[in-house]
Amino acid sequence: MNKNFFMQLALNKAWEYQTLTYPNPAVGAVVVKNGSILSVSAHRRAGESHAEVVALAEAYEKLSGKEFGVDKYDAKDAHNFLLSLPKDFFSECEIFVTLEPCSHHGKTPSCASLISALKLKKIYIGAKDPIESHSGGIKILQNTNIEVETEIMQEECQALIEPFVIWQKRAFILFKLGQTSNGVIGGGYITSKESLKYVHKIRSVVSAMLIGGNTVRVDRPTLDCRFIDEKAPNIYIYSKRDDFDKDIPLFGVSNRSVEIISDISPLLDKPSLILVEGGEGMLKALKNNIDWLLLFQAPKLSDSQLSYNITTELEFLHCQKSGIDLMIWSRFGK
């Protein structure tokens, strides 16, 4: 069995929901029986079923030919339904999970206890849980004689949960860029509707957005979540001057705060997820504070002169499609 192949499938699925699970980590899972894939699933958002539960629910549908009896994203109902199945239903199945199954009972029941009760044949784990209060899942599995193999693509699985590890201690700063294939960032909407929706999904879960004062004055943005009909994020405008036209749309969005700050250091120490959208000035000003960059590259060329005039190397972490665009998660190279 090519263990890395199945774990890579789990990783790819988890990356589709990167940061959208805040404050939870992005996690993927794959259920296999006799080398055949039954399901490839991921945790979608905080409060919903974890990746293992969704994967087992979808595996049930494949094996039984029936629809899952309850909402598979309702953690408690899904756990109870899975536990009601015959004890040997998943006995020939193996599961690949990018992160050690949780041991604690919080908003959702323990995934480690569920897998133990279902008596799966084996579990392959990418990274151990970095949060001590959540760990212990491996021990639960081993205590019920579930075969466990760890450190499958460990480096890649640890990279996947890097935001989660950081926002436990301080702000995780994500800088979003959208550009054409020749590096142009001006001239209205550049990226696809799918990319715009993904950014709005991120906006809907972040602690706050940070944007430069010049971008507000020139672009007069709204910075809401209208493409997914969710609550708009709170805004911090990084500016030395408080001379903004209050008719700029972002000031008129209801149920959110807009604060003008000249010092970002108080934001950095608080455990949170901060999304930054801005131009060259913000990128250069925050370079030493940015944890990751999310680049949407559209398959088009433009003769506009507006771009990010900065020289630096990047380390690509993951690349995927977003509509017709390329979506690249990266960090500054060392």
Spell out the blueprint of helices and strands.
Elements: H1 3-15, E1 28-33, E2 36-42, H2 51-64, H3 75-83, E3 93-99, H4 111-118, E4 122-127, H5 137-143, E5 147-149, H6 154-160, H7 162-167, E6 171-180, H8 193-205, E7 208-212, H9 213-219, E8 235-238, E9 258-261, H10 265-268, E10 272-277, H11 280-286, E11 292-298, E12 314-322, E13 325-332
Parallel strand pairs: 3-4, 4-5, 6-10, 6-11, 7-8, 7-10, 8-9
Antiparallel strand pairs: 1-2, 1-3, 11-13, 12-13
Structural features, described:
By secondary structure, the protein is an alpha/beta fold. It has helices at residues 3-15, 51-64, 75-83, 111-118, 137-143, 154-160, 162-167, 193-205, 213-219, 265-268, 280-286; strands at 28-33, 36-42, 93-99, 122-127, 147-149, 171-180, 208-212, 235-238, 258-261, 272-277, 292-298, 314-322, 325-332. An eight-stranded mixed sheet has the order 9-8-7-10-6-11-13-12. A five-stranded mixed sheet has the order 2-1-3-4-5, with helices on both faces. α2 (51-64) crosses α3 (75-83). The radius of gyration is 22 Å and the shape is elongated.
Give a brief rundown of this model.
This protein is of the alpha/beta class.
Structural class: alpha/beta
Which strand order does the major sheet show?
9-8-7-10-6-11-13-12
**Strand proportion:** 15-25%
Total helix count?
A: 11
Which regions have little confidence, pLDDT < 50, spanning 5+ residues?
none
Rounded radius of gyration (Å): 22 Å
Approximate helicity band = 25-40%
Largest sheet: 8 strands, mixed
Termini separation comes to 36 Å
Total beta strand runs = 13
Mean pLDDT: 94
Please give the oligomerization state of what you see: single chain
- What shape does the CA trace take? elongated
Element order: H for helix, E for strand: HEEHHEHEHEHHEHEHEEHEHEEE
